[in-house]
Amino acid sequence: MGKKDLTKDDAIALQILEMLKGMRYGSITLVVQDGKVIQLEKSEKVRLS
């Protein structure tokens, strides 16, 4: 399956999975407008202890 075969929802899901890779502490926020995801925000924490 190539990138052209992905739906918009599939692309968003893959983007979220990419953002999660390697993240140990933090959050991902989905911003929704009119029932559609319009923005993803990633906040990552770094533990120093």
From TrEMBL:
The lineage of its organism: Bacteria, Bacillati, Bacillota, Bacilli, Bacillales. This is DUF2292 domain-containing protein. InterPro entries: DUF2292. It comes from the Bacteria. It holds the Pfam family DUF2292.
